[in-house]
Amino acid sequence: MAKSHGSLTGIEAKIEYHPIFEELGTLYESWKRSAVNWMQTEKLSESSVEKRSNEKV
């Protein structure tokens, strides 16, 4: 059974809902917050943030 998440258009409307998408979205937001935090507090460049995030994986 598909779960409704508001109005979907384009390719989103064709992808059936699966709980893993929620988990991936949560992980993405966490990674994004970490990257922004590193850039602001440690004055890291985008390439340094990318290298650092690859080390944590």
Describe the structure.
- The chain starts with 18 loop residues before the first helix and ends with a helix.
- The chain contains two helices and no strands.
- Helix 1 (19-41) packs across helix 2 (46-56).
- The chain is mostly helical and 57 residues long.
How far the N terminus sits from the C terminus, by CA atoms, comes to 33 Å
Structural class: mainly alpha
Strand runs, count: 0
* Proportion of residues in helical segments: 55-70%
Strand content: under 5%
Question: How many alpha or pi helices?
Answer: 2
The ordered string of helix (H) and strand (E) elements is: HH
Based on the structure, what is the oligomeric state of the protein chains? single chain
Cα-atom radius of gyration = 16 Å
Q: Tell me the overall shape.
A: elongated
Q: What profile does the largest beta sheet have?
A: none
Task: Report low-confidence residues grouped into runs of 5 or more.
Answer: none
Report mean pLDDT, rounded to a whole number.
Answer: 83
Features:
57 residues, mainly alpha, 2 helices, 0% strand, elongated
Outline:
The chain has helices at 19-41, 46-56.
Write the SSE topology:
Layout: H1 19-41, H2 46-56
